[in-house]
Amino acid sequence: MSEILIQTFFLYFIVIDPLGNTPLFLSITQHMETKQKIKVAFSATVIATIILLFFALLGSSLLSYLHISYPAFTIGGGIILLIIAIEMLFDKRQQRKGEDIDLNSDNVSVFPLATPIIAGPAAITSVIVSVSDIGTNFTNQTVGMLSLVIVLFLTFIIFFIASKFSKLINKKIIGVISRVVAIILVGLSVQYILDGIKTFLT
């Protein structure tokens, strides 16, 4: 049980990437007062939690309805994560996300913060694959979802601290952390692809 909690926690923390998304959060909310930034951070993480829990609960059923096999989705998810990891290694992911930011959006907590920045394709894919991989055991599934909620809560805490101390945020340090995280994500993505191939061949 503790092994599932640790594994899923690190997976979700890597793909949601709250540290890497902090500069984007500050960029989106730079014109806001501190209280408003905290309110936006809270709303965004709550909405992202609802989105990701939805896919955690119904993702497998959705795949079955669309006749998408688990190996196909696992391999596809692994490829997506590998592309994202490479983008992170070469500092392209945050640049791309930054270019896609719509600062004129009426409700930035929903778009682009909740989705696609927090609950993006990588996070949704990882949730579905992880839930399918855990199996049907209710306790294990609960532990996996608990780790997801913990990561999203930590995302809010990081955004909260960033709102309070935005002038102290060092983008270079965040960049170094993102690259270390990217190396781990490369390993996870390749493992997804290998697991999908293995399942398909057996």
Explain this structure.
- Helix content is 83%, strand content 0%.
- It has one domain (2-7, 33-201).
- Helix 4 (70-89) crosses helix 7 (121-134).
- The chain is built from 9 helices and no strands.
- It is mostly helical.
Describe the structure using short key phrases:
202 residues; mainly alpha; 9 helices; 83% helix; 0% strand
Outline of this structure?
About 85% of the residues lie in helices and about 0% in strands. By secondary structure, it is an all-alpha fold. The chain has one domain.
The value of Rg in angstroms is 17 Å
Strand/helix succession: HHHHHHHHH
Q: Count every helix, treating DSSP H or I runs of 4 or more residues as helices.
A: 9
Strand coverage percent: under 5%
Average pLDDT over all residues:
83
Q: How many individual β-strands?
A: 0
Task: Give the termini distance in whole angstroms.
Answer: 27 Å
Please describe the biggest sheet, giving its number of strands, its sense, and whether it closes into a barrel.
none
What is the 3D shape?
Answer: globular
Low-pLDDT parts are none
Topology:
Elements: H1 2-16, H2 18-28, H3 34-65, H4 70-89, H5 93-100, H6 109-118, H7 121-134, H8 138-164, H9 171-201
Helix pairs in contact: 1-7, 1-8, 2-8, 3-6, 3-7, 3-8, 4-7, 4-9, 7-8
